[in-house]
Amino acid sequence: MNRICELLGIEYPIIQGGMAWVATAELAAAVSNAGGLGLIAAGGAPADVVREQIKKARTLTDKPFGVNVMLMSPFSDEVMEVVIEEKPAVVATGAGNPGKYMEMWKAAGIKVVPVVASVALAKMMEKAGADAVIAEGTEAGGHIGELTTMVLTPQVVDAVSIPVVSAGGYADSRGTKAAFALGADGIQVGTRFICSTECIAHENYKNAVLKAKDRDAVVTGRSTGAPVRALKNKLTKEYQRLEKEGASAEEIEELGVGGLRRAFQDGDIENGSLMAGQSAAMVHEIQPCAEIVKDYFKDVEF
């Protein structure tokens, strides 16, 4: 049996990415019901909101699902406590090193699957007790590292003995086959799930992903040390202008405040942050999660 399916108790070795705002209880439950592992993104949300989302997901699915915790969040400590009390099947972590929380989660019987963008962090996570790692290449949307999926995945596979999930750039079953060829045990997908029927993102956001061309997913914020990939629009151009002029990190970060909400909730595709990966150019239709999950494993042996 596939190591990720066995570890997480799922039918297909696919994890839905923990996209802030986008990865709600509705989306996570739909992916879990489709046989993958859905994740609720805690993002920068306060702890009580995260608790509500976990409770809501439980009313929508009886399958395992997880919570993605962003370690840069100002509420991360409170969110950790909620996670321990509510005990979702899995915790995935992004934007940082979750080492200090690992013991508490393990004691609560929660599987821990951190996102890593380097070999060193993958090794560190294995040593700290992670059950698996998600090796995420720079093709992904949102906060990213430097290495591509193609070079990061096999290096992480060679460096650790725990299961490895590959992320960044996966749009269809050709990608799934490539991930397995690189030695991964499964894939994580974010961008294509934005264009799922069950995702509650604004229609304008979904349409922006559908219209994206090969070079539309651009990176901003490299100068701040926290690069982010999103579809180019007025906001990304403004970011680039500020960076070029040598603006301070505070000034650049200030520009992004509320950006995701503007895109996701208000449908403002010019001034909102349309976080999406390079695979956006390969997403062509809105489909139910069950169809998307099956499509990733068409003619794929695992």
SSE topology sketch:
Blueprint: H1 3-8, E1 14-16, H2 25-33, E2 38-41, H3 47-60, E3 65-70, H4 76-86, E4 90-94, H5 99-107, E5 111-116, H6 119-128, E6 133-136, E7 142-143, H7 149-159, E8 164-167, H8 173-181, E9 186-189, H9 191-194, H10 203-211, E10 217-220, E11 228-231, H11 234-244, H12 249-256, H13 259-264, H14 289-296
Helix pairs in contact: 2-3, 3-4, 11-12
Number of domains in the coordinates?
2
CATH class of the largest domain: Alpha Beta
Classify the secondary structure makeup into a structural class. alpha/beta
Assembly form of the protein: single chain
Helix fraction by DSSP (H/I, runs of at least 4): 40-55%
Using the 3D structure, state the CATH architecture of the largest domain: Alpha-Beta Barrel
Keywords:
single chain, 302 residues, alpha/beta, TIM Barrel, 2 domains, 11 strands, 15% strand
Report on this structure.
The protein has 302 residues and is of the alpha/beta class. The chain has 2 domains: 210 residues, Alpha-Beta Barrel (TIM Barrel); 78 residues, no CATH class. Helix content is 41%, strand content 15%. The chain has an 8-stranded parallel sheet. Strand 5, helix 6 and strand 6 form a beta-alpha-beta unit. The longest helix has 14 residues. It is globular, with a radius of gyration of 18 Å.
